[in-house]
Amino acid sequence: MHIFSNYIIFISAVAWIVAVIIKGIYGIKRGTFSVSQTLGSGGMPSVHSALVTSATTAIGIKYGIFSDLFAIALIFSMIIIYDAINVRFEAGLHARALNSLKCNKESGKKYEFNESIGHLPSEAFAGSIIGIIVAMILMSF
Q1: Where are the domains of the chain?
Q2: pTM for the complete prediction?
Q3: C-alpha span between 49 and 41 (Å, rounded)
């Protein structure tokens, strides 16, 4: 059985691809494009949010918004988006503070922690809108 024979996974993959492309275009327009930043965590839009909301929306359309499956998907989506906005965003602030120390005084080594691992609410919202739109379009076929 092919993995994309599962329509929910297919829709989620399409939403992920669309969000990554939009993230790359956004980086080009801002003059900050890099492949690692486009494929990495953080930034506009949230690819994680697009992925989970597309799956949740597709499940809601296919099985109904009162189904147990939709409830589980919605709860996990909320946890993932909360994590992106709060926990991972805060970890990015910690990384920025640690990077400002520049080096370990004993060894002289420089440490570079990834500062862009979380999302602003607007980035998560944009990703969620992408996920919902992709799922609604693809579920209409």
Answers
A1: 3-139
A2: 0.84
A3: 11
